[in-house]
Write a structure and sequence with these properties.
Layout: E1 9-10, E2 22-23, E3 29-30, H1 32-41, E4 45-49, H2 53-58, E5 65-66, E6 86-90, H3 95-106, E7 112-115, H4 118-125
Parallel strand pairs: 3-7, 4-5, 4-6, 6-7
Antiparallel strand pairs: 1-2
Length: 133
């Protein structure tokens, strides 16, 4: 994935003061612009949202599946068919999704990463129609 070097920072177009600065740990994270590129290029990826239902009701990424973080371990079996797929996990800002990615890797989902900056960064960098909260 482009610009996924340790400590790399990536901005989206124009003025860097308007765009969030996102530092990527490539072992665990993927940049929202890279997720968007994968989706648009036809790369088979699965997007998992680990926020709460009330957050999902406010804003969501098209095609994502909601499994709140507190329910995730009990619902691993629902994801079994995705074990060998690229999986991107997101939350609001990225902390919960990092925890979810770690749990999923421990459960044998080797191709999972957290989307750096969460849906907040997605809203700012990829799809401004996704509500910020």
């Amino acid at each position: 994935m482009a610009d996924s070097l340790p400590g790399s920072t990536r901005f989206h177009g124009g003025s860097t003061s308007a765009a969030p600065k996102i530092t990527i740990n490539p072992e665990w994270e993927v940049h929202p612009l890279d997720v968007h590129q994968m989706k648009n290029s036809g790369t088979e990826i699965f997007i998992l949202d680990v926020r709460q239902q009330k957050e999902w009701d406010m804003a969501r990424i098209d095609g994502a599946l909601l499994i709140p973080l507190d329910q995730l371990p009990a619902r691993f079996s629902e994801l079994e068919s995705l074990r060998d797929k690229h999986m991107v996990v997101h939350c609001h800002h990225g902390a919960r999704s990092l925890r979810a990615a770690a749990w999923l890797r421990q459960a044998g989902f080797a191709r999972v990463k957290s989307m750096a900056g969460g849906i907040e960064a997605w809203s700012l960098l990829v799809d401004q129609t996704v509500r910020r909260y």
